[in-house]
Amino acid sequence: MSEVLPLADNEVHIWSVDTSCVSPELIAGYRALMSAQELERNGRYRFEHSRHTDCVARALVRTVLSRYVDKAPTEWTFAKGEHGKPELTHSPQPLRFNLSHSGDYVVCAVSWQKDVGLDIEYIERKNDVLAIADRFFSKPELTDLFALPSARQEDRFFDYWTLKEAYMKAHGQGISLGLGNFSFKLDDSDAIGVSFADKLEDNPADWCFRLFYPVPKYSMALAFRIGDENPQRFSVRQFSTIPLQG
Fold it and tell me: Which CATH number is 47's domain given?
């Protein structure tokens, strides 16, 4: 039995890959790990960059999960929940995971039993982020965003956007929650507040959130359902890796 990596109930591990460092030879190895369904879906991507990123993502989640359970990367099976969130099937242990990718980076969060959501965004995309905010953000978020100097607004937009994406992914219902039905509160400290519309029937005390800036030009957010755990005990470890290499 291979040695497994310990993961506490109050801990999340985040694994990241710079896809630009992955060689064609490694991609061939990644394809050997993928299921027939994953390979078929990969072939439907129009652009080579998208196919490359997808192979890295599939290899990352399979090899990372095998660090916590004595199970070969090829043996993991997955299914989508009611709202499309990927989940493990036939897992010998209650692991949870969540994937995200943007630009050259793929990231994967892993937790033990508890819901987890992760989102990474390349912040130099050519989008009218203020128009997006005006359409999707809550009134308090918009008030905060537009009160900032213009030079800080784009960074704050991505803080809010990644937090919203991470929460929706952790919750499991995705965009159907309605982005305006929950609101984050940010200030110049590390504190992250959240409030929910009554219709969501969710409790802010059940959640912990974190913001990260793992490499220049990227923002990343993590959402973790802690339940009745003490939030002061919540911890995150980050790892950089290249699947099948290190």
Answer: 3.90.470.20
Q: Is residue 13 part of a domain?
A: no
Q: What pTM does this model have?
A: 0.94
Q: Which helix (H) or strand (E) holds 156?
A: helix 150-171
Query: Residues 74-93, buried b or exposed e (16+ Cβ, 10 A)?
Result: eebebeeeeeebeebeebee
Per-residue pLDDT tens for 73-132? 999 999 987 777 888 998 888 899 999 999 999 999 999 989 999 999 999 977 899 999
Give the chain's residues under pLDDT 70: 1-2, 246
The answer to whether 194 touches 209, Cβ cutoff 8 Å, is: yes
Cβ atoms of residues 159 and 219 within 8 Å: yes
Closest CA to 96 of 109, 80, 111, 76: 111
Range of the domain at 49: 19-111
Note whether residue 232 is domain-resident. yes
Q: Which of 163, 166, 161, 106 is nearest to 134 (CA)?
A: 161
